[in-house]
Design a protein that fits this description.
four-stranded antiparallel β-sheet; alpha+beta
Length: 193
């Protein structure tokens, strides 16, 4: 269990207990080894709980050429996705590579890309099916949260999954703090309360 897990909160006993609970749950679902880093923010007096996880690698990565048909025509590469599980990852990867202004989703499974030299260039890009691993990680994170904490929001950004949870009303400052935790995780820096 050699993973970087940072827990911040006002109660050291609670911090240690949540760290152990988190490790046990992630180990039980077999995801502890695939997590690079975790940050847990505990504010039971608010109540506010934030858990952010950075994955080690993109799971189930495949090339766009394996999950879609592509063709180049007059400076545009047309991508027709055949494996729907990879649709969100393909769009995100194309945005990352060519920018949002050059990538348009014409319908759920069809995308046009400007700025790619050839369809082979687009075919060679790796994408992931993020749905199943993200669902499994979210399920584990929800198990770590106290039962009465029912109002939850999730973010996902660059391999970082963050859950912000509270008891009744999700305030904007809770979401802002969750985003700060997520930003710190993406940048690889420590987040402290």
């Amino acid at each position: 269990m050699a993973q970087d897990i940072g827990v911040t909160g006002t109660d050291q006993f609670g911090n240690d207990a949540y760290k152990l609970l988190y490790q046990e749950i992630m180990y039980d679902i077999g995801k502890l080894a695939s997590v690079e880093r975790s940050t847990i923010v505990l504010k039971p007096e608010v109540p506010l709980f934030i858990i952010s996880v950075k994955m080690k690698a993109r799971p189930s990565a495949r090339k766009i050429g394996d999950i879609a048909a592509t063709r180049a025509e007059k400076g545009v590469v047309y991508v027709s996705i055949s494996d729907e599980m990879y649709a969100p990852g393909t769009l995100a990867r194309l945005w990352e590579e060519y920018g949002r202004d050059n990538v348009q989703q014409t319908d759920r499974l069809d995308i046009t890309v400007r700025g790619a030299d050839t369809s082979a260039e687009v075919d060679s890009l790796e994408v992931e099916s993020s749905e199943q691993p993200v669902r499994e990680i979210l399920g584990a994170l929800w198990r770590v949260l106290p039962e009465g904490i029912r109002v939850r929001r999730e973010f996902e950004n660059q391999g970082v999954i963050t859950v912000v949870a509270t008891e009744e009303i999700m305030r904007s400052e809770f979401l802002e703090e969750g985003k700060k935790v997520e930003d710190a995780m993406v940048k690889g820096v420590d987040y402290r309360v």
